[in-house]
Write a structure and sequence with these properties.
Layout: H1 2-33, E1 42-45, E2 48-51, H2 88-104, E3 128-129, H3 131-135, H4 138-145, H5 149-158, E4 160-161, E5 172-174, H6 175-188
Antiparallel strand pairs: 1-2, 3-5, 4-5
């Protein structure tokens, strides 16, 4: 028994040191090298502080809508819904999102709705939407804010974030940054 117990204890102690100590210190060191020391990307506008790297709920018709969240945008509990594409409850939820979007965006057909506007991300905290998801909302926002569609399209184009090193991931738009820029555009007109 001693033959097996001593190596198991040594392996456990080594794992604790490596995974709880050294790995944590390496992660902390990398975070300290990042902007804002890894505490998140903060944006201050009108004396309010926003975190741009955490998804937030935007469902007001005068704003670009954000991607749905399975955790109600609660950063303390990041997760997806874990319901598969054949789960009846999941299908009802997606259909309800589609129906809501169509009611608020007359003239848009179901086939024009990008998937990221009706499905939650894996983390439930995705702060970004696709270019298509922003573009499909232009008519609604233009009508409500009385801003020409062309100017809103230019605003979208200015807020496109390219993939990391031009390789990793698709073009995307941070919804918070876009909506804050939309408020500034609306105030300047």
């Amino acid at each position: 028994m001693k033959k097996y117990l001593l190596p198991a204890i040594k392996l456990t102690l080594l794992s604790i040191i490596l995974l709880s100590g050294i790995y944590t210190l390496i992660s902390l060191g990398i975070a300290q090298a990042m902007p804002d020391n890894g505490k998140g990307q903060k944006i201050t506008q009108n004396n309010k502080i926003y975190y741009a790297n955490i998804g937030q709920s935007f469902t007001n018709d005068q704003y670009f809508w954000s991607r749905p969240s399975a955790v109600a945008y609660n950063a303390a509990g990041s997760s997806g819904s874990n319901k598969g594409p054949t789960n009846p409850e999941y299908l009802q939820t997606v259909q309800a999102r589609i129906d809501t979007f169509l009611v608020h965006n007359p003239g848009i057909e179901k086939s024009q709705i990008p998937v990221d506007l009706v499905t939650a991300s894996g983390s439930g905290l995705d702060p970004d939407i696709s270019i298509e998801a922003a573009t499909v909302q232009i008519k609604r926002i233009s009508k409500i804010r009385n801003i020409p569609e062309k100017e809103i399209k230019q605003l979208i184009d200015r807020n496109i974030e390219k993939p990391l090193l031009g390789l990793f991931g698709p073009d995307k738009i941070n919804v918070l940054k876009l909506n804050l820029a939309l408020d500034i555009l609306d105030q300047s007109l």
